[in-house]
Amino acid sequence: MVTMSQTIDIDAGLIEKYIMELAKFGEHSGTGVWRTVYSPEWVAATQQYARWCEDAGLTVHHDTVGNVWGRLKGREPGPSIVSGSHIDTQRPGGRYDGTLGALAGLIAIRALKTQFGIPRRTLEAVALCEEEGSRFPSAGWWGSRGITGRIAPGDSDKLVSLDGTETMTDAMRAVGLDPDDVAAARRNDIDSFVELHIEQGPILEQVDLPVAIVSGITGIRHYDVELIGQQNHAGGFPMDMRRDPMAGFAEIANSLVDTAHRWGRPAVTTVGRVEVEPNSVAVVPKRVRFTVDARHPVQESYERLMASHERLMREVAARRNLEISWKVMIDQPACPSDPGLYAVAQEAARDQGVPFMTMASGAGHDSQQMAAIAKVVMIFVRSKDGRSHTPEEFSSIKDIVAGIRVLAATLHKLAY
Amino acid sequence: MVTMSQTIDIDAGLIEKYIMELAKFGEHSGTGVWRTVYSPEWVAATQQYARWCEDAGLTVHHDTVGNVWGRLKGREPGPSIVSGSHIDTQRPGGRYDGTLGALAGLIAIRALKTQFGIPRRTLEAVALCEEEGSRFPSAGWWGSRGITGRIAPGDSDKLVSLDGTETMTDAMRAVGLDPDDVAAARRNDIDSFVELHIEQGPILEQVDLPVAIVSGITGIRHYDVELIGQQNHAGGFPMDMRRDPMAGFAEIANSLVDTAHRWGRPAVTTVGRVEVEPNSVAVVPKRVRFTVDARHPVQESYERLMASHERLMREVAARRNLEISWKVMIDQPACPSDPGLYAVAQEAARDQGVPFMTMASGAGHDSQQMAAIAKVVMIFVRSKDGRSHTPEEFSSIKDIVAGIRVLAATLHKLAY
Predict the structure, then answer these.
(1) Which residues of chain B neighbour A97 with C-beta distances below 8 Å?
(2) Dist CA A395 CA A382 (whole Å)
(3) In this model, does residue A401 exceed pLDDT 50?
C-alpha cells in the first residue's frame, strides 16, 4: 500500500482533449453545447464515453435508463466506489457543467489504475443522463433517479417535453430503451459516490482557490405558477377597474427576488421563465404563467423561505383579485454530505497539496439523489466569472487537474 | 328636406345578421374572431362586405391598400361624407371591435337611401384594414394611413410580421396587391369621417347609457424595450452579485403600472408582451424584451407621463447594472374631434332621442389618421363588462341600433 502523500499524476493533455472532443456532440454557438437527453448528440456522446472507458481498460455497461458505466473490478468483493456526473446540458449550456464530472471519474480511475494497479475495492465511472430536466422539465435527475429506484412504473408516460410534443416514453423508445425496464437500472451495491463538478458560482474565484469540498447540497423547490385575471383592451379600461395578471406577476417577481436578496447568502430565488397569454402590446393579459426557483442549504431556513414566498404570492393575488394556483415541480430537501467522506476528501486535498475551502452547493446535483443509496461527497472546481448554464462557462485545465487529483486521492483512500 | 326630428329606421335584424355572418370569417373559440390583414379570412370578409354594399345599391371600389369602399353618389359635386372602421381583428379578438363600425356605415347609408333617397352630397361606407397591427406589429392604422398618404415608398419592405417570417410586401403580393401602388389609395376628397365603434371600456355601462359622442382620441405611445443582464446558474450565483434582467423587468413593469394607477383616469399604462431568453426555470435570464403601452388624451399630460416612464426605466436599469434600450414603435399624439362635427353628432343624438354622454377615447382609432385629411368625430356604443380585444366582447343589438341611429342622423345632417 502506498503512502497517501504520493502525488497522483493526472494527464492534463488527455482531460483537455476529452473535454473538447465531447463538446463537439451538440456544439452550439462556438463554445456552447446543446445536448438534451436521448437526442442524437447525446447518443453519440454516450458512445464516445463508452469507447474512452474501454481505452482505460474498464468494462462498459449501458443501463436501462441510459447511464453509461465503466467498471474496474476490485480484488475483493463488496459494493463499489463510484465517481461521475451527467452529460446532458442546458439549451444551450457549456462544456463543463456535468460533463467535467463524468470525464473526471473516468480520468481519475484511469490514472489510479496506471499508477497503482488493480484496486482492492471495485471502482466505477459513470455518465448520467437528464440531470438538467432540459428536455423534460419535470424529469430532473432522471438518470440518478433510475439508479436509486426513484422512477415509478408509468412515470415516463406522464413526463412531457418542454415543447409539449412528446413523452419520455416516446423519447426512450426512439433510442432503443424500454421504459418498462427502468427498474433494472436500480443499484444496491454502491458504497460511496464522489462527484466532481464545476462550482457554477463566483465564490472560489472571489477567494482565489481552485477547489472546494462540498459540505452539502442546497434544498431546491421549483414552482410552476399561474395567475389569471381579465383580458381587456389596453386603452379603454381604467387602471382602477383592471384585473391585470402581468401587474400581479411583476409585483410577485419583484418581491420574491427582493426577499431572497434581503435574506442574503446562501438564500437565492430566481424567476427564470414566463409565458403570457395572449402576449400582445395593446391587450391587458388574461394569463401569466411563470416559474420560481428558490433554494437554501439549511433545511429549517429552506422551509421558512418557501413559506414566505407562498404567503407573498397569495397576498398579492388576493389583493389584486387574481386567481392563483401553482404546482411544485421539484421539492428536493437540503442534502448534507456524508461526514466521513467529507473528512476523507479534505484529507485527500491536504495530502495532494491542493489548497481548498469548504462550501455548500447552491446548485442541485445527482449526488443528492445518490445519497438515498450511498454515502456522497462532492468536489467543486473554480468557474471563471462564476458562469454556468451558458456557453461562456469555463474552468482552467490547471484547476481541473487540481480537482481531479483531489478526486483521485479520495477514491484511492476509499478503494486501495 | 325632412325635419331632423324624424326617426331614422334601422333594421335590427339586418345588422344582427351582418355581424354574425361576418364573424364566421376567422371564427375562433366560439364567439371570437381571428382575422388578420390579408389572410384568407380577411379576403373573404372584404368580398362579403363588397357584396352587401352592392345589395345596398352602393358602387364598390377596392383600393390599392385593401380597403373596400361603397359609394352613394350625391346630387352635387364635392368631397365625400364617409363612415366606416376596420375589419381586421386581434389574435383573437371579438365580433364587434372595428367590424361594427364598418357595418354601421354601410347600414346607416343603406337606411338613409331607403328612407330619404339620393343625398345632396356623396356618402361612402368603408371597411379599413390592419388597424390593430395584429399581423404586422408596426403597421397599425395601415389602411387609414394608406388613405391619408402616410405610407412612404418602401415601407412595406421594412414591416415584418409578428412571427418574423414575412414582410408586408410578401403579404400584399400574396393577395394580389402591388405594394408599389400604395400611393394610389390616397384620398383628397373626403370632407368628414364619422366612425362608430364599441367603447372597449366599462364607462357607459357604469353610467347606464347606450351611446357616447367622443370628444377626442387618446395619445398612444408603444415602447419595445430590451433589458440585458448576465445569464447565470440559478443556484450557484449569490443574489448580491447578479445582473438579473427579469428582476429589472419586474420592478419596471410594477412601477410603470403603479404610476398610471396613481395618476388615475384617464391615464393608462399596460405591459402586454414579454419575451425572456433563455426562459428556463433554473437560469438567471440574459435578456428580457417587453412592451409598454401608455396613453393620455391630453397632450401635455401625455408628454409628462411618457417622460416619467422613461426616467423610471433608465433609473432601474442603471441601479441594477443592466443595459437598456428601446424603440418607440407608435407615437400617436392626442387627437381632439372636430368641434363642428362633435356638436352635430350631439345634436343628432338629441334629435333621435338617444340618451348619451361625452367621453375621450382611451383607445386609438382610424379616425386619428383620417383627421389628417378630414374633419372627424366618433360615436361609441356600450360594451358589455367593458370587454374588448377578446372573444367575450359584446354589445346588445338595442344599443347598436341606438348608435347607428345617431350615426345615420349625423350623416343625414351632413349629406342631405
Answers:
(1) 233
(2) 6
(3) yes
